[in-house]
Amino acid sequence: MTALSGAKILVTGPTGQVALPLTLSLAAKNDVWGVARFTDAAARERLETAGVTCVGADLATTDFAELPTDFDYVLNLAVAKGGDADWDRDLAANGESIALLMARTTPKAFLHCSSTAVYQHVGPTHPLVETDPLGDNHRMMFPTYSLAKISAEVVARAAARDHGVPTTIARLNVPYGDNGGWPGWHLEFMKAGHPITLHPQRPNLFNPIHEDDIFATVPRLLDAASVPATIVNWGGEPASIEEWCGLMGELTGLVPTFEETPNTIGSVFVDLTKMHDIVGGTEVGWRDGIRRMVEARHPELLHG
């Protein structure tokens, strides 16, 4: 499929940075439900105004009994990365919830949004492939994140086999766009005059992917779902923190300042051969995407 239309779709975590614009986009042509705690009343109202059926639930404790069972597709975009390192809660919300959700809904296809945070850090010279070693590369910033994401993948793989649900596990790199993202935070740091942390092993290379390309590839990732689960990297053309901050400086006149420390996330640079074979390439180059993000979030900063 090249688009989703006329389907009944469940999205977990629909108020998140990636999930909110995606859910709003899907709601235009589909019967979309969202499940989350909805602590942000304004975000819930925005979703409901767009026609999304919102179900309040805590993914760490719910059994999803309040949900119908006739969804065509489930997009699991929720994430728990509590700064208080509550391992029981984060493992339940990220991992256990997948097994319970898949058993409840048994959709035509299940997309689990994982993260390239699951990989062992190796630096910017080796593009990571889906079979490379996994590791705890985000512990210095989010203590439970990498291991909870690895655990969630294991649960998704097992549940897909147990329930016969075609599943894609997509390891998302650096999502960004009008709704923000990591480069958006860097723009805020630059605006406030705060330094941006960099790993000393330079360049700090990633594969940022614009929200437009996320929207475009979701239907194809669902098409690629299988039993056993399809596992694929999900990102765009490579760019470094140094490069995208430099571009934002050119666009705004703000001067990025960097502070080197090993206690930050180092390069997570991935090989996208499998993704390109499955869903094709991305359309939004990082330079154009960053410019659009600045225009959307801080147009007053742009020159001319």
Question: How would you characterize the overall build of this protein?
Answer:
- By secondary structure, the chain is α/β, with parallel strands linked by helices.
- The protein has a single domain, classed as NAD(P)-binding Rossmann-like Domain (Rossmann fold, 3-Layer(aba) Sandwich).
- The protein has nine helices and 14 strands.
- The protein has helices at 19-27, 41-49, 87-105, 145-163, 182-192, 211-223, 241-252, 273-279, 286-297, and strands at 8-12, 31-36, 53-56, 73-76, 109-115, 167-172, 174-177, 180-181, 196-198, 205-206, 208-210, 230-234, 239-240, 258-260.
- A hairpin with a 2-residue loop joins strand 7 and strand 8 (180-181).
- It is globular and about 50 Å long.
- The protein starts with 7 loop residues before the first strand and ends in a 7-residue tail after the last helix.
Uncertain ranges: none
Counted up, domains total 1
Fraction of helical residues: 25-40%
Largest β sheet strand count, sense and barrel closure: 7 strands, parallel
Strand-pairing-aware structural class: alpha/beta
Strand order of the largest sheet: 3-2-1-4-5-6-12
Q: Helix and strand succession?
A: EHEHEEHEHEEEHEEEHEEHEHH
CATH class: Alpha Beta
Helices, by number, come to 9
Quantity of strands, as a count: 14
Mean pLDDT equals 95
What is the C-alpha radius of gyration, as a whole number of Å? 19 Å
Strand content: 15-25%
Architecture, according to CATH?
3-Layer(aba) Sandwich
The CATH homologous superfamily name equals NAD(P)-binding Rossmann-like Domain
Envelope shape: globular
Q: State the end-to-end CA separation.
A: 41 Å
